Amino acid sequence: MWDEAVTGYDFGPSHPMDPVRLALTMGLVRAFGLDRAMEVRAAPAAGDSTLRLVHREDYVAAVRDVSQDPGAADGSYGLGTTDDPAFPGMHEASALIAGQSVAGAEAIWSGEAEHVVNFAGGLHHAMPGGAAGFCVYNDASLAIARLLELGAERVAYVDVDVHHGDGVQAAFWDDPRVLTISLHEHPRTLFPQTGWPEETGGPAAEGSVVNVALEAGTGDEGWLRAFHATVPELLADFRPQVLVTQHGADTHFEDPLAHLAVSLDAQRAVQEACHGLAHEHAEGRWLALGGGGYAVVDVVPRSWTHLVAIAAHRPLDPQTPVPGPWRDEVYARTRQLAPGRMTDGRKPSWREWDAGYDPADRTDQAVLATRRAVFPLRGMLT
Known about the structure:
The chain is α/β, with parallel strands linked by helices. It is 36% helix and 8% strand.
């Protein structure tokens, strides 16, 4: 899903969420010819009736008002804050990104498409009644809500952004039809200070919310071990009809806003794993979204181009050189030098959970806390 107008989601020149990351990602997708391996489609902006599947009517009206008059934003509804400054066209750009994710979900449910990628999406912090964490409308929640409206009975959401997927968790806190799994930096050290393993869902949906909170400094081996020690077993138990995944690239060791130490190669390994899990458990129905990521030249375009390539069944060898014309585009747009290859030079590996638990290992402690909190609620062994 792509429309050049999504780059209008622009909080201003001093904000870390620079829309150049979207333009550069699409440029790299095109440089590798992946736009010819998948259909590139644009969808209309989400209308009010769609936005109200998740968001309150008064909040949508407030976004529309400050979109027309950004100077009137006073922090109400989270609009006009440092994280979410108001800008002209805010409603239109936010609704357009949401429309791409919702249309992608519709295409998957109808059988029109097997895999859909919207790397402009993944705005997982937006709440039903407010903006938060650079997110105005929660396209991930809206896509899931649309799937439920169309008749889906089991939708799994897996979020590997460095920040907790709090908005999606909140939207489906008490809905057993949605399993939300978030793998993120520990809330002690990072916004939004939620996502503790003890958060497991509301009274009607206990065990439908899963949080794996990892210590600052966790690198490839720990991150991959935590993913594989939780996500595959939970998806096998839940048997989703559709898998929705959020691939924020801000877990990377170069990201300026967080404290994990994950490589591009490990991010790619999780993307491959999600693709495989969609085929194993959801008949291949996979909606993959972007998310955070503030190393806008070195990391985000390469990470999400790998995601598109995997979804297109045209995975890129990590050793592949970055095309010269794209490197020229990077310099022209940013005056920065682009990376030379589609890898950080790492070879990701991890110990399987069945290999044994180390009580002194912080990652193992985090995984066990999650398994003990959630697995019994689902009738699973810890």
